Each structure stands twice: as structure tokens, then as C-alpha cells.
């Protein structure tokens, strides 16, 4: 019973089983386990939610730092635009020219052909139009805004890394303290068991002495 209580207290404080600890679950029948302090520190660091949160904050700070450095680089943007024209004013003019235009000797409409084949008509009266755009920009002067944002992101990353180190140190301290508390508790349990065994032997000796008449009833009561 005492060993189970010691094991429960050790688990609640974050420590794993100590080298000398003999803890066994009464409900599941788990055999006792033995690990070193270094293994306990590694396991506690992986299981600590505080350390995980600090690591996530460091990753976020690194991303914000990279984002703050991005405006120093040239910005290249591209665009694609597609337009389909069902009917334009140039097509109407071309139809009017074909109906009222003059014909040459071969019977063809010269005004309609010249209008439909003109460069302006091919550009603005095309049924399908695709427009490609490419824009390149570079920040030259920002009045110190980018420098301030970069310094702020660098400071945030440094703060996050310091907080991560502090979280790991605190987790290691708590685990080591609970580990040695569990070891000390196990030693106290062993001392209590030894004291109980010695007291029981003394009680048996006093009871035997009373039976042979060399001890009084008061001696038996005191031993009990």
C-alpha cells in the first residue's frame, strides 16, 4: 500500500519510476520498471505541454522573421486575363461596309476587306483575347518601416527561444526534483518496513519472555 502511494505521488509530479522504486499497479498488474534519471528527463521533456507550446512559439517567431525580411526582395507578380467577344462595333461597321461598299473589277468589296483586314480590327475586334501581365516592384525607401519590422521580428524570435530554454530547464528541474523525491520516499518506505519487521521481532521476543515468566504484561503492552 505504501509503495503504491509513493508511485502515485511520483507520477502526479511528473517523474517516472526511480531506479530503486518498486511500484506495481494493483488493478492492472503492471510489473515494476526501472529507468535512469537521464531517460526520465528525456521522457518528461517530450511529454511536457509547456515545452511543446514554447517550441510552437519559436516556429511562429521564425516564420514572422522570414516574413519581415521578404519585403527586402523584389516582388514579381503575374496575371492572365481571357476575354471572349460575342460582337463588337467593328463587326457592325464591317457588315455595313460590305452591304454599301464599292466593288472592284473582280466583284469583291474593297472597303469591307480593307476594314476587316486592318490591324485595328484584328486587335479590337478579335473574338478571343488573352492578356498577359507581369509586374516587378522593389522597395527603395520606406522611412525605416521595414527596418523596424525586422528588428521587432528578430527580438520576438530571441524572446521565444529564451522562453523555450526556460521551459526546458523548468521541466528538467521539476522532473529531477520529483525523481529524487520518489527515490527518497522509496528509501523511507524501506526504512519503515525494516523498523516494522524489527518491532515485530521485539514483540515476539517479549511475548515469549512473558510466557516463560521473565517479562511482565506491561512489557508486552509497551511492545505492542
Low-confidence stretches: 1-27
Spatial extent as radius of gyration: 45 Å
Total number of strands: 2
State the assembly state of the protein chains. Answer: single chain
Described by strand count, sense and barrel closure, the largest sheet is:
2 strands, antiparallel
Helix count, DSSP H or I runs of 4 or more residues:
8
Report the structural category. Answer: mainly alpha
DSSP strand content: 5-15%
Quick recap of the structure?
Helix 3 (about 50-70) runs antiparallel to helix 7, helix 4 (about 90-100) packs antiparallel against helix 5 and helix 7 runs antiparallel to helix 8 (about 215-224).
List the helices and strands and how they pair.
Elements: H1 2-12, H2 37-47, H3 49-69, E1 75-84, H4 89-100, H5 110-116, H6 119-124, E2 128-137, H7 145-211, H8 217-223
Antiparallel strand pairs: 1-2
Helix pairs in contact: 1-7, 2-7, 3-7, 4-5, 7-8
Describe this structure in words.
The structure is a single chain. It is built from eight helices and two strands. Helix 3 runs antiparallel to helix 7 (about 145-210). The longest helix has about 70 residues, at about 145-210. It has about 220 residues and is mostly helical. Helices cover about 65% and strands about 10% of the residues. The chain has a two-stranded antiparallel ribbon with strand order 1-2. Residues about 1-25 have low confidence and may be disordered.
Keywords:
8 helices, mainly alpha, two-stranded antiparallel ribbon, 2 strands, 224 residues, disordered N terminus
